[in-house]
Amino acid sequence: MKKQFAVIGLGRFGGSICKSLVAEGMEVLAIDMDEEKVNEFAPDVTQAAIADTTDEKALKSLGIRNFDHVIVAIGDNIQASILTTLMLEEMGVEHITVKAQNDYHEKVLERIGADEIVHPERDIGVRIAHNVVSENVLDHLELSDEYSISELVAGSTIAGETIYDLDFREKYGSSILAIKRGDDMIVSPLPDETIQQNDVIIVLGANQDINRLENHWM
Ligand code: ADP
Fold first, then answer.
1. Which residues form the RCK N-terminal domain (predicted)?
2. Residue minimizing CA distance to atom 16 of ligand 1
3. Fewer beta carbons below 10 Å: N end or C end of the chain?
4. Complex prediction ipTM
5. Environment class of residue 131 by beta-carbon count within 10 Å: exposed (0-12), middle (13-18) or buried (19+)?
6. Domains of the chain
């Protein structure tokens, strides 16, 4: 059976989630208190509803309990986001993901039992900062406070060397997960793989080591 999703708040973030879920063939109920927003999304989603989700009765009448996963994407109104999350939790919704506006909001959401808390603006900010610091960094993903994955372009300094020669693990405490070379993807490359200029190298390591790599290598 298809997983059923409900998205509350059809701003830029919630709206983008709705579109992506629909593109993946999922069933989506899109909810917003703003009729215009609901009308905008109604043609694309499985179901659309106008409701203020801080109103318990309205929330119940949507049958929200039966959804596998509810995403709370209410933006600036932190109070409405918290109240909605609290009620979803009390109703026993299986999985709740909430967008947090700031650290205080996140703390409260953690306390009331949101399963997953996302910080899209902050996360994108971190990724873009890594991108602009070094031209060699294509992308950067923080896995936790301690570890990241980074996509780096190999420059002339290391082209022609094997992974073994570079002594990557020892010098940078990082592991090469994969190398993208044109259309090819070399997953878990062996130590005798020779790096070529413009290879895209995907590395996993501690944040400080990855930062060192991004700033000083290639
Ligand atoms: P973003 O930063 O993702 O664009 P916005 O703050 O612009 O977020 O959008 C949040 C959406 O959530 C708005 O469309 C707003 O109408 C909706 N919203 C806010 N409060 C409630 C609520 N209590 N019930 C339902 N929808 C709400």
1. 2-119
2. 34
3. N
4. 0.96
5. middle
6. 4-118 (3.40.50.720), 123-216 (3.30.70.1450)
